[in-house]
Every structure is written in C-alpha cells, then in structure tokens.
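User: Some background: our group keeps a shared notebook of sequences we're curious about, and every so often someone picks one and asks for a predicted structure to add to the entry. Today it's my turn. The entry only has the sequence so far, pasted here. Could you supply the structure so I can complete it?
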Amino acid sequence: MNDNSLRGEDDESDTAFAEASITLWSNLVALIGTHMLETGMPRQELLDMLTTLHETNEETIRSPRARAIAGRHLMSVYRALGDT
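Assistant: Of course. Here's the predicted structure to add to the notebook entry:
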C-alpha cells in the first residue's frame, strides 16, 4: 500500500467518525430537549436555544461538510421539538 491509499482510508475513517459523532450529538440534544419540555421549559425558549446552538455551530465548525450535516440534524431536532 502506498501513502495515498493509507491517507484515503484515514480520511474515510475520519469522515465516518465525524458523521457518527454528529448523529450521536443530535440524538442527545433531542433527548435533552424532550426532557426540558417535559419538565416545564417553555417551547419557544428551547427553540431559541437550538437556534443559538445552530448559530454557534455555523461559526465554529470548520469543515463545510460537517457544518452542513450538523445543520441538517439540528433542523430535524428543531422541527421534532417544535411540533411536539
């Protein structure tokens, strides 16, 4: 195997890890959000917090692909919690 082949495998592993981490993160945010709603947090306050989290991600996640994936996942959480 040459260095390019190994580097490609590392890139794929890094991408898979990042995508799995973002999925896990969004599931955790959904679980926490559901709990917050069940314990009496006003829905609009929670949705405002999710908007702030999205804005922070947009400013801090360096990878355009990871930023887009995180945005899609967070929008799904926002819609799910906004409709409950």
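Suggested note for the entry: The chain has three helices and no strands. Residues 19-83 form one domain.
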